[in-house]
Amino acid sequence: MTETLPREAVDTVLAEFFEDRIRRATPLAEHYALLWRRLARSSEGGKRLRPRLLLDTHRALGGTHPEDATVAAAAFELLHTALLLHDDVIDGDLRRRGRPTVTAEFADDALTSGLPRRSAAAWGQASGILGGDLLLSATYALVARVRGPAREELTDIVEDCLFRAAAGEHDDVAFGLGTASGTPEQLLRMMENKTGGYSFAAPLRAGAALAGADEGTKAELERVGTALGVLYQLRDDMLGVFGDARRTGKSTTGDLRERKQTLLVAFAEEHPAWNAVRYLWGDPNLDEPGADLLRDALIASGARTGMSDLIEARRQEVVATIGRTTLPPGLQQDLTGLADQLAGRAA
Fold first, then answer.
1. Lower CB density within 10 Å: C or N end of the chain?
2. Would you say the pTM of this structure is higher than 0.85?
């Protein structure tokens, strides 16, 4: 997608926000100011996909007051960072975007200072949770700065997508732990809630709300955004096992170590090749040779091919859905291009 405003416009809003928070935190405690500095760094390096979705939709639908759209776009980037921070704590991930997570950084600090490993882990987890909480609060603070009648609707959009994201995350954990069965239908529903809502449908709807679009347009964007989110997550699950960690910026053994229930794994279930090594799936001490055995089984079982075929089928469905909308041709073209990018992305 093309950007309505330079990426620097959103980055400027975020930089000013973090500068203010660091200034306010510094008199309170050095470690609290450090938390805010690390939160600022954790928001760097992303694709700014959600701001782009919001800004391009706002432009395509004839929106005015681009400064308000920029503030709302920055709010969705904070929301994204907040959920990543919480996700890292839940999944025990130590790397994100090619560098240590906030949780890992504070845990390492504590270990270096001489704290026992368990206490250091608790300090890291508390810092990650609090950091995510702070950025969720900040999301609403930025939305409150938007002027005009769309502000209330934006607040409702944020609340709704968070409600759905929490449902999806709860499902994800339940499926991984085995406290709920993850059928293919349930896995797809989890993706719609966890990723489709806040990452795609919500910023598209927000851009439309700021442009004063009608309810039919918003409903079309909701459908398209949800479908794009599922496509994104399917590809993400493939990259989580078969991707290049140097490009994705995160581990390619984490999903296997955490026993993450995905459609990739569902395709392999009951196949002899997978059954032979299934005991390694979810092993907290899984090493790279063990992960390679699991990857080989996913290939031998046909799961990787099945997943690739599903991603292509979903891409075609999304493109067809976009084509049936009444959205402006330029926006349809942008969204179609995005679907192609999501299906083939390597990072």
1. C
2. yes
